[in-house]
Amino acid sequence: MKKIIISLMSVIFAVAFSACDDDNNLPDVQPSDQGTVTDSEGNTYAWVRIGNLLWTTSNAANGPLMDDYRYFDNVEYKNAFSKSQKKWLQQEYHPAYGNLMSWDDAMESAPEGWRVPTDQDWQELERILGMENSAATGWRGENGVGLRMQDKDSGCRLGLQLGGFMTAIPSGFAWFDMKLDFTGEYGAYWTSSLDDSALDHKTAWYRKVHCSNGGVDRVSGRCDKLMAVRWCKNAM
Description:
Layout: H1 2-24, E1 34-38, E2 44-50, E3 53-56, E4 70-72, E5 77-79, H2 83-97, H3 103-107, H4 119-128, E6 138-140, H5 145-150, E7 165-170, E8 176-181, E9 186-195, E10 203-210, E11 216-222, E12 232-234
């Protein structure tokens, strides 16, 4: 029995050290340039250069405000937020996390010369940060790439934020409610790339990061979800 316990402990330590080694073996990516950009509403954002792309380092704050979002419940349009919820959004959420947008609104948000990153733009970023299977779907780069993307004051300084996302959830027999979920736990970010595999509704690829999961989720979802937006631009 003692030999079995010692053997099991050896395996556990080996896995633990392997995980640490994987994380330590990620490339030390530092921005090669930085600056600021201002949107059409006067909001200013910092950006960093990673590889051949410039990336904004905070979530877009422009576009139609999520506070005013209305959804159709198969009978009429309803406000997604009450007055007290709107006050919380204006005073606490927006200053910390920016705005959440539908895919269509996200495509209209970027300042002149900038764009919402494509799925390929995200994959290029992930490869630079040390992900080997960037083209796979689901959670990839569990060795710490997702956590590195959240670093604000060190490393790549991309600072992905955990502002959650809004999606339709069943609420009764024949209608759906829109709910803001997972604030402080997940961050979800649109790409500009549509996923043509869904036949019944328009879907697009997006990225999702978690507060403790080291990976990055590559998945597609309905374009009427509300998610965070970052912009990128080809370096000159």
